[in-house]
Design goal:
By secondary structure, the chain is α+β, with helices and mostly antiparallel strands. It is built from four helices and 20 strands. The protein is elongated.
Length: about 300
Amino acid sequence: MSNYFKVLRPGINSTFQDLGRFGLQHLGIVASGCMDQLLFYISNKLVGNKVSQGALEFAYQGPLLELVGESALVAVSGKVNFNVINKNGETKQGTPNESFVVSNGDKIDILSTINSVYGYLSILGGFKLKEIKGSVSTLVRAKIGPNNGNKLQSDDKIFFNKSNSAVKTKKIEFDFDTDNTIRVMKGLQFDYFSKKSQEDFFSKEYKVTRLTDRMGMRLEGVKLENTVSKNIKSEGITKGSIQIPGDGQPIVLLSDHPTIGGYPKIANVISADYDKLVQKTTGLNLKFKLVDLSIAESAFEDYIASFNNF
């Protein structure tokens, strides 16, 4: 018997993701992968999977899925408002960050994320996804990954592996970091910007605009003045780089960023604050705080250690 979810509504930006597809940036293929690693980790942990197992990532509004086949243990991680509708039509409010069992004919309706952007759906045994270059992450712009490299569409079928493990529900409690200060280190072209702009960047607030997706986050605020050159020779760039194009408004590059770029970079978000950054919703104001390498490394060690708390 096939076990699958039928997609009744795909949601705004629902894709399969894991930790990423590494070692291909020299070919122009970015690592991609889940936006919020901690939430991704938690969703797999809740159902007893390997923490690297592919999960379904959704943004703002998630999918409406109907289970066809045998019962399954699933979990939704994040700050998420969702319902479970049984086959008789009875609706029950779902509890995020706690695994639960769904049966044939039941529906999971992921209505919205709450004061955040991304959430994850995992299933015990994992989804049946074809690996490409060692990863099941979807890079939509390049049409690489499961589902022919596309976002979920209505009437898609999401097949999953039947697990023989004992079904054991689990709950994980954690706090979202609601602080709007993002720690950064100086970028390679930090000195391209006037002293006033350097000061403004760390003292003024920048608003998250609607022009934000898995590729990048456009910010709006005090214009930053480049006194050297608005363009540089294209060079390799990383997740969290903050580019300043000609209009002087920052763009933070996110998980689906291009592999090279020619805009000067004023700063780079430290790895420990990346999850916090990507969960900031449109209209929120951010502040940037300059830290040195030792603080960035220490923060990363704390971030990795936090994974062991669950």
